[in-house]
Amino acid sequence: EPIALAQLIHDVCTSFEYTIHKTNVQISLQLDEEIIIFADYDRLEQVIRNLLDNALRFTPAGKKITITLQSQANEVKLSIHDQGSGIPKADLPAITERFYRVDKGRTRKDGGTGLGLAIVSQIIKRHDGTLTIESTEGIGTSVTIFLPTNISEQSYPFG
Ligand code: ATP
Ligand code: MG
């Protein structure tokens, strides 16, 4: 189905309004409002929700999360950048594996199960997109997604 990506991002941010307010993290949106892509709405919502959930969880009060959305050639580039704890270099290669978490000692109430990025990665793959995670410990994390704008109707619905 055709999806107005910027609207979807606004809606996900609205659903996190309470957490954003409570954590005192600033969200900066730089979105091309015109972008429409042909994809699975619920899955893309899941992607944005998971990535924003991570950014909010690992970013301390007073810091900023920036979400940018732009189109280039036949692709859409979506990036979520945070000024949070970052991911240690040694953990980066395995970070999209199921149940992988940097702090294995933490319990469910401090975090999640380690499934978020595995799900995100799989959804992006199924949309013929790419996912890159760049991170520096103590500085922050950038998750960048490229999605083709011209996903054909045959390739959906997924799974
Ligand atoms: P779930 O998403 O299932 O609730 P989770 O958030 O722990 O649990 P993932 O989303 O897969 O699982 O993330 C895996 C791990 O990667 C996290 O536990 C955390 O250690 C690290 N991580 C993910 N995103 C960030 C981020 N933006 N900043 C710092 N660390 C991150
Ligand atoms: Mg997560």
UniProtKB/TrEMBL annotation:
Subcellular location: Cell membrane
Part of the full-length chain shown: 315 to 473 of 473
Domain Histidine kinase: 1-151
Annotated protein name in UniProt: histidine kinase
